[in-house]
Design brief:
The chain is α/β, with parallel strands linked by helices. Strand 7, helix 6 and strand 8 form a beta-alpha-beta unit. The termini are far apart. The chain binds cobalamin. The site of cobalamin (B12) has 28 residues, from helix 3, strand 6 and strand 7.
Length: 252
């Protein structure tokens, strides 16, 4: 490539050599492990555009199911310039800057109520954001002097969450959803946001934030929340977002 060569617009996955198109895929078929089941796995991979496709791992999952890993080539290319993502649209602040901005703007502590709703008991994610010990080398929101954190823990019902948000006069409600079986994370989030809209006049409603590893950050509008956070979120990002949204009058 010379200095004049424009950067490639499209890219392909690779395994051994750049552009060879090799990918690896895992899935389970409701078939007892057999040569036929392995052939069915290859057929599925072929139909998905992998050709050739090779079963590199097959393991029975009980008597009637088999888990597969298939390695093979695809011919698809992707164009990074057409990818749409939610970019961070607020500055990252230090805890000191967050505390200073909140104190100046609110003249009281910001109140955050959080928990896992529905039957979800995966509290590690919300604890990573809220608990003082934090995540990825950053302290959680409990560390911030100007933030009061009420962590309700696991399996909080929506009515309980709304009630607690009311009694605590929450500025923001932080909900975690990790389990995605039958789209539980989406259904629970919609139920939660609808309940807050019903319980509060629009101008008084706390900021609604949902997070979890399988959320698409661009779904805030359709889920009825103000912001969605996904994999790898750090407490500092959340504290900075809260400060941005709750101290600036011009931010919708
Ligand atoms: C630990 C764990 C458990 C523990 C949970 C303990 C606890 N107190 O949390 C226990 C053993 C209880 C458990 C139980 C179950 N689990 Co489990 N569990 C996991 C595991 C291994 C790790 C999850 C975790 O802690 N991640 C670490 C945290 C830090 O990451 P995180 O949650 O993504 O959080 C980050 C971001 O997403 C974001 N974030 C998350 N929430 C929020 C909220 C806000 C407001 C914000 C801003 C950000 C944010 O910030 C965090 C930091 O970056 C995952 C597999 C995996 N490797 O991910 C399975 C997994 C989540 N579990 C799974 C399942 C199926 C279950 C069970 C149903 C199993 C069963 N049959 O009983 C039960 C369900 C229990 C229930 N009622 O919820 C599945 C879910 C599959 C699916 N499609 O939904 C997974 C993916 C495993 C798998 N591959 O099958 N589990």
């Amino acid at each position: 490539m010379t200095d004049q060569t424009p950067p490639a617009r499209v890219v392909m996955p690779y395994g051994d050599t750049t552009g060879d198109g090799m990918v690896q895929l895992s899935f389970t078929l409701p078939l007892a492990h057999s040569k036929v089941a392995e052939g069915a796995a290859v057929q599925l991979a072929n139909k998905m555009g992998m050709d050739p496709a090779l079963v590199v791992h097959a393991r029975p999952m009980g008597p009637d199911f088999t888990f597969f890993v298939v390695y093979g080539r695809v011919n698809h290319v992707v164009d990074p310039s057409t990818v749409e993502v939610v970019e961070r649209d607020y500055p990252l602040l230090t805890p000191k800057e967050v505390n200073g901005a909140l104190k100046r703007a609110l003249r009281r502590r910001l109140v955050v109520v959080g928990g896992c709703i529905g039957t979800d008991a995966h509290t590690v994610g919300i604890d990573a954001i809220l608990n003082i010990k934090g995540f990825a080398g950053e302290k959680g929101l409990e560390y911030y002097r100007e933030i009061k954190v009420v962590n309700l823990g696991a399996q909080v019902s929506v009515p309980e969450l709304v009630e607690r948000a009311r009694t605590e006069k929450a500025d923001a409600v932080l909900v975690s959803q990790v389990v995605t079986q039958r789209d539980a994370h989406l259904l629970n989030t919609r139920e939660m946001s609808a309940a807050f809209r019903e319980a509060y006049p629009a101008a008084k409603r706390p900021l609604l934030i949902v997070g979890g590893p399988r959320f698409n950050e661009s779904m805030a509008g359709e889920l009825g929340v103000d912001r969605v956070f996904s994999r790898g979120t750090t407490p500092g990002e959340v504290a900075s977002y809260l400060t941005h949204r709750l101290t600036r009058k011009d931010v919708a």
